Known about the structure:
Elements: E1 2-10, H1 29-46, E2 53-62, H2 70-83, E3 85-96, H3 103-112, E4 116-122, H4 126-132, H5 138-151, E5 156-162, H6 169-180, E6 188-193, H7 201-204, H8 212-228, E7 232-235, E8 238-240, H9 247-253, E9 258-261, E10 266-269, E11 272-276, H10 280-289, E12 296-301, H11 304-315, E13 322-323, H12 324-331, H13 335-338, H14 342-348, E14 352-356, E15 363-367, H15 369-373, H16 375-380
Parallel strand pairs: 1-2, 1-9, 2-3, 3-4, 4-5, 5-6
Antiparallel strand pairs: 6-8, 7-8, 10-11, 11-12, 13-15, 14-15
Helix pairs in contact: 1-2, 1-10, 2-3, 6-8
Bound molecules: iron/sulfur cluster.
Amino acid sequence: MKKLAIYIHIPFCVRKCLYCDFLSAPASDETREQYVQALCREIREERKSYVNYKIETIFLGGGTPSLLSGEQLDRILGTVFDAYQVADDCEISMEVNPGTVTKEKLKAYKRAGVNRLSIGMQSAVEEELQSLGRIHSSEDAFDTYELAIKTGFNNINIDLMSAIPGQTIESWKESLKRILDLEPAPAHVSAYSLIIEEGTPFFEKTPTLPDEDTEREMYKITNDILSEAGYLRYEISNYAKPGFACRHNCTYWERGSYAGFGIGAASLVEQVRFSNTRNLKDYLGKYLKNATVAIKENRQELSVEEQMEEFMFLGLRMMRGVSAGKFSDLFGKTIEQVYPGIVEKYCRQGLLQKIPEQGSGEVRIALTERGIDVSNVIMADFLLT
Ligand code: SF4
């Protein structure tokens, strides 16, 4: 059977954070309930497309999935379990925002099948959370973590954000230190830097941000401190204790097949990309009132060139890099034939490295520490279209 990852989008938040351009908005209890009903219908109706697939991972993202009640979450996952073949060891992750969960809710999520939580802490410094417009305090975030541990979750990610307004090297170290002081420390840490996106309040009136050198220094410090504490950096911005890398996200970087449900959710199946409408009204109309409206849109059959470039620039995000042998097997040409001189050039500059691949006699091509700093430039060199 082929492998499939499922992404389920929950587009609701208590209120918008100042930097956020995700597809999410506040909504009434009634709208949330209608959405859950529509989502369950979409999941059921789509099963015919995936009869030959086994579900290896499920990820509930948003938005704020933890605005759902335990019963709603149970209905959604129950629909997946009923309609699809789900692997026994399926990784089922859910994003949880501090200030939106109780012990009872977490217990219900666990009962429903969730076995990995991702807590959107962002910072352990009060003023920084306020500057981002987050609804929670750092204590709320630590309380959520403690509740999750007490509920029996042992696979927990904490999301942190660097290069945010008012942040200094010292305050960034403070955030890292506070999460490492947790008992037990989280199994996984995601550390992305803030990006100012068009259409957000931060884009209209950009606050003073740490300069580029400081941002780079923060990246370096993150790696130093987390490596020292026993985490493996397995992707540019992701760190895990051994055995706790997020399998779902690895599917994206390795270009495995995934199906997205809910508004705005993206899919990649058999080298075809498509996404769901971003229009909530259309989505509810289709699944609750049988309106004749197209939900799956932006269908794009990827050319071989597009597949090759995605293979390279998504794969290079991972510290283990890309397999030269796999590239040849998939595309019938070597990396050198498709990208003459590029790998060698960056190897000479110390930005890429070749790592022998165990057992195959082939090599993997991966970023070096220095290469990570300029990864955008390197990846751009692998574009073909
Ligand atoms: S909680 Fe997350 S999805 Fe919701 S508004 Fe804030 S950043 Fe956006």
